[in-house]
What does this fold into?
Amino acid sequence: MSHGSVAAIIAAAGTGSRFSSDGRPKQFFELGGYPIYIWSLLSLSTMDDIGLVVLVSRESLLEEMKETVDSVFAERGLAASRKKIQLVPGGDTRQESVRLGLASLAAAPPEFVLVHDAARPFLTHALVQAVIEEVTATGACTLALKVADTIKKVESGAIIETLDRSNLWAAHTPQAGRYLWLREAHEKAASSGLTATDDAMLLEGTGKRVTIVESRAHNLKITVPEDIDRAASFADILGQINDYA
Ligand code: CTP
Ligand code: MG
It folds into this structure.
């Protein structure tokens, strides 16, 4: 590999309150035979360029996740990929979970980190490769998709502004940066009580230029139960991920 070391963090410690059907967090919902979080874990851990994957888990479910990971990777003969995976407990917000994931890498810091949402299962090697190429060249980037709908700014139930769609992008994950940049941005935010909706926003806040890598529609986030219906149309992507291993 021509660039520095690359690690990945998968945020999988949420409660899935907007999804909740049976009280289990959505990342445990079974899709194509595996819990949702297994898919991005398979994709990231089978990339040769990625040396370490931190799976940030809810503390109460960490042992269960470890057992599932052990059995899936053993069953598929993926011992080398399994060795790259470390499970660490997360926090009460996504930001806190990512901060804890970054902190867990402090003893042997990688040069670059990709931060991914477990709730986005359709993560292909092609997308990961594009993010790695960009982050190693620019230092900070995120996958994003051009907005297709016209976006309205609304107050009290009525439109107050129509935004110019041509320069609007919806942020996806992985979002990536130099490890030290991301670590600094997260630690600063935590100590000053700053909350951001994503990692790119924290990097922007520390003055970093975050470049865009074009995402794909299949890289959707499972947020509400209806998203499972949309996900069904991307079954071929899970087939592709199955083939990596
Ligand atoms: N996440 C996390 N730790 C938290 C909250 C969220 O690791 N304390 C993760 C989720 O597991 C998910 C990703 O961050 O993979 C994106 O968050 P989101 O889609 O909002 O998931 P939830 O917070 O679980 O869902 P909701 O907001 O509906 O409760
Ligand atoms: Mg959330």
Q: What stands out?
A: Residues 14, 94 surround magnesium ion (ligand 2) (CB under 6 Å). The first helix runs from residue 36 to 45. The chain is about 35% helix and 25% strand.
